[in-house]
Amino acid sequence: MKVEKFQQTYSLKPQFNEIEAIEITKPKFQKSFSVGSIKKSSMGFSALNISWMVVDLFKNEIPDEKVYIKKIKIPTQVHNTIKEATFNLIFYENINGKPSLEKTKNIVVSCKSGKHLTEIDLSKNPIPFPKDGLFIGFEWIVNEQNTYSYITTVNHPDGTKEKNVLKHGTAPSFKAYESVNSNVMANINLDWYNIFNTKTRKTVYSISMQLELTN
Q1: What is the biggest distance separating any 2 CA atoms in the chain, rounded to whole angstroms?
Q2: pTM of the complete model
Q3: Is the distance from CB of 88 to CB of 137 less than 8 angstroms?
Q4: Distance (Å, whole) CA 164 – CA 149
Q5: Three-state SS for 144?
Q6: Shortest CA distance to 184 belongs to which of 61, 99, 90?
Q7: Alpha-carbon separation of residue 69 from 2, 22, 72, 75, 174 (angstroms)
Q8: Could you report the per-residue pLDDT of 13-38, keeping only the tens digit for each?
Q9: How many H-runs (helices) and E-runs (strands) does the chain carry?
Q10: Residues 18/141, Cβ–Cβ less than 8 Å
């Protein structure tokens, strides 16, 4: 409201915004589909003591079906000094091949040491999987529970080695696999960027993750 002059009484006029009809649907659980792959390689994603986000585009190539995500499987690795770690499973809309400005969903997930596959069961509250697909990935939670220390060896150019260099990491770590094309994007300071530039890299990777869908 714009006030042009002072007065004792102000009359407010309501303003209405018309929206399109809202369609409410629920899964039928009659069919099952899968998107993404669970593959492992030496390539992966990890964090030190700074939180960052990594997402990949999961495309919806299922024709003429309204589908929902009922389960997500992610290979995870937790450092052996930590019994259980947590991370944020994050979802973003696909806006012209880039993640939306705001998260559409955030789920805190726990994963245990010694268990190399984490499953997130969403069957009670399935997530709609839009025709444009979703960017899905993870955000590290930097806290005392997830922090571990490890020792590394530095190889110097003169051939000498420096041992017992203490590093601090944040669990868990995640796997990737070699792919033909990569849609993996990262965000550290509210700025998304491509990790694997297909023009400059011979090898690119995708996040190892599988979505189980239902109609």
Answers
A1: 84
A2: 0.82
A3: no
A4: 11
A5: coil
A6: 99
A7: 46, 20, 8, 18, 20
A8: 676 666 666 656 678 888 899 999 99
A9: 0, 15
A10: no
